[in-house]
Design a protein that fits this description.
The structure is a homotetramer. Chain A is mainly alpha-helical. At the A-B interface, helix 9 and helix 10 of A face helix 9 and helix 10 of B. Chain A binds a DNA duplex through helix 1 and helix 3.
Chain lengths: 202, 202, 202, 202
DNA sequence: AATGAATGAGGGTTCATTCAT
DNA sequence: AATGAATGAACCCTCATTCAT
């Protein structure tokens, strides 16, 4: 029955993943999750202490990695040299290489953690990430163009960078396509940022 | 009584606007709307047939304009010449001028229509808009770089363009700041797009 | 419908009174309360915010008096002279007279407050009252017999004094009987206390 | 296995004892009992048919003694001579001597039987005991003061006598203290009773 | 116009018990 | 002997909506 048990538990997890992904934590319904998983409400609570416990299972691994990243991102090798490449047309290949190591780790758990966690204790993860990006953005602006006077755009750009990546992950299962699109998307942001602060001689 | 009636109706509308904006259609609670409006649940149904009817009022004008725009956008004067300006550093001023006529019309109703309508019959508006943008994006790509091979990025970029504008509208009440940020944001997208398809001689 | 409304509300209150009195707060079932009141669960929440709100209505008046009593009991005329009456056989009439002013105020609300409130914010009321009695008991012992060496009995006697009065109130609706029994019961406690500490020349 | 079995069974019994004692039969949770006992819900039902069966084990011995006592109490040597001791100040020592034989037998099982059995078939035990006491009380009254006209107080006094002893047992683990307090408490009741019916020449 | 009473479905959760392994 | 999966009823509570007054 060990097998049987795991079957049901996995069915609940799978079903919960789908439900949380589609509706977010708060709108997700345990009754619907268990029905889709082919079991009963009472049985759900044999596997999980409560709604949030199921959510946590879906998100735990990604959350641990996330926390590690938040705490150590300044020690991690930074791709600052990217910006110093004289010809931005060469960014793509370098960026693609860089991302090839990390994008395969971006799974459904990460999407749920960042985009479906309102109402849980994980709700703030996306904000932390956005703030990280924003700080880099501001640093970057100050380095390349002290006179740029619409610095508030950093709030939007940072959040949109994250949201865009989430959307790509949501809508593309093919790993290669996923990788290609994220590369293009970040490239788009780099070019946009450089252009915005007047760093190109068009 | 007519006066009183409008007062109540407007109070409900104002309160509903706030609730829908904050929580979205589905999570919004009529009980909370009427409490905040200083009236009662029963009275709500004297003014509106149901939850969606209130939503519709909040969104009607913007929706009509939206439909008109969707149906006539190909007849509307297009800012294509923008792209033909040789020096992108001059885009900002032209774009700003262009937007100064339209941004003041972007109000709360538009945000609600595009970003808070899940669960209503308006849920698809944002998608239609996104598709419009996407089609322009694709046209543009085909015009300037037939070989660009990550055309799928158009889905993301188009949706992100809309979402970013919505975020700016949500978070900035000051009209000038709003206008400036949207200008910068669209500029950012234009530059990013051009860069992505290799249209700059960096 | 004002009348109708009060009917239902009163029916719920009456039914809740019965349920709380019989089962205590935690075991009481809203479903049973509303069924007994002839209405539905949903409707219950039109009259009361939640289970505890109904409880509070049942208990509010008594609680206010209770708080007033706790804060002011030391200013209230104390029946200490009772103890100084040389012949305890005369206590009964004095005590009865004293109680005749207060016992009529002891209603069902008081029983619920003191004896059915576990699980609510009122749960500690009985304890406060018991402690008051206990302190008086200890004062009394120290005044009349410093050598009495089973002072711990005060815990039990104090709580039992309160519990006994609650039981009398629970089981007797007739005001005169109620008054007579409480008189006898307190008399019993006074005699017991005096006897215990050896204050009688039997 | 027999050894292991008893270990588990005893762990459940110990854990159940604690849970029933603290919460009473109805509020007690089998889930919490087995968790505290370090076993599982399924295994519980290998040892006990159901919740009440565990309760019965905890209470069985005391219940048998109780039934024996109820059926034979009139044949048991009665401490009536106590009352005939001319000087009540001498009661304490005689009573203490009497109780020293019986109080050590008052264990947790008795508390549970009398005070935690609502919802079980044992629920009426306390009442039977109370009625016994009450009958003695009435006999006593009729013997010493035929004119006493608040005979209904016997209901309360009898129940309170039992409840007080239960409280002492609940709150005191030290055998000597337990014995002393019960002695004082019953003395208190004897004095109170005698005083109430005017049998003292104060 | 205004009130809020009434309904029934659904929300998350706990429970004692049964049963297959 | 031991596990815990499975069930179904019950717990308190919120919801949008209807309706009588």
């Amino acid at each position: 029955m060990q097998i049987k048990k795991d079957e049901v538990k996995n069915a609940i997890i799978k079903s919960g993943e789908k439900e949380f992904l589609e509706k977010g934590y708060e709108k997700a319904s345990i009754r619907k999750i268990v029905k889709q998983a082919g079991t009963t409400i009472g049985n759900f609570y044999n596997y999980f202490n409560n709604k949030e416990a199921l959510f946590e299972v879906l998100v735990k691994d990604e959350y641990d990695k996330f926390i590690y990243f938040i705490h150590n991102h300044d020690k991690i090798e930074r791709p600052d040299y990217l910006w110093q490449i004289s010809n931005p047309s060469k960014w793509r290949v370098v960026l693609s290489e860089l991302l090839s190591k990390v994008v395969p780790n971006f799974g459904i758990g990460l999407i749920i953690l960042l985009d479906c966690s309102e109402g849980t204790k994980f709700a703030n993860c996306k904000n932390e990430l956005v703030n990280l990006i924003k700080n880099h953005f501001i640093e970057h602006i100050e380095k390349y163009n002290k006179e740029y006077n619409s610095i508030e755009i950093g709030d939007i750009i940072s959040e949109q960078l994250i949201d865009g990546i989430i959307k790509i992950l949501r809508n593309n299962n093919n790993p290669d396509l996923k990788h290609k699109l994220i590369t293009e998307y970040i490239l788009f942001y780099m070019i946009g940022t450089m252009g915005l602060i007047g760093n190109f001689n068009f």
